[in-house]
From TrEMBL:
CDD domains: Macro_OAADPr_deacetylase (cd02908). InterPro entries: Macro_dom, Macro_dom-like. It holds the Pfam family Macro. Coiled coil: none annotated. It comes from Compostibacillus humi. NCBIfam families: PRK00431.1-6. This is O-acetyl-ADP-ribose deacetylase.
Amino acid sequence: MKAEINGNTLELKVGDITKETTEAIVNAANGTLMGGGGVDGAIHRAAGEELLEECKMIRKEKLHGDYLPTGEAVITKGYNLPAKYVIHTVGPIWTGKSETEEMKLRNCYDNALQLAKERGITSISFPSISTGVYRYPVKLASVVALTTIIEFLKRESFGKVVMTLFSEGDYDVYKAALERLLQEE
Ligand code: AR6
């Protein structure tokens, strides 16, 4: 499914984000930036060792040894990936108990898009951040993700944003949410 927003394109599709040919792909990382399971593991495996080396440098030099805070984003090269860049962000772990979880998830999308825009990137693919290992319910996460992307595209001239969903089930949830949000316009 595709939607035009202020001259930009928002696309939903089913696929493996490591195969995406957008200029940048987003990684749902953890604060260590040292890789992990899920999409993070898949991206590190496909990109190769050099990605981990650059992440280590960022931890050391940019973050002075600290973890990347939840909701923030950093950029690396894509190495063996078709995408030229990887933007790493850390989603919130769902507990359902904190009102800040939604804001943190929103920050992931907003900061990744902002960083891409600053670097002159005009196409980017996102996975469904936080809805795997971090257990954020996909119905709730889809509304946060799409609302944030739509607000960004309404105020910026960017290019193309893709949500690369890993299952038909997730795609259906995101599609229903996007149709609802576009109707409310
Ligand atoms: N392409 C697109 N989406 C994918 C892919 C892929 N190749 N592989 C998995 N997904 P998760 P989180 C989907 O768990 O919830 C890691 O260990 C997956 O089906 O990857 O933010 C990190 O190191 C789900 O819909 O990320 C962190 O510790 C979505 O990507 C932690 O998991 C996100 O699931 C982050 O958890």
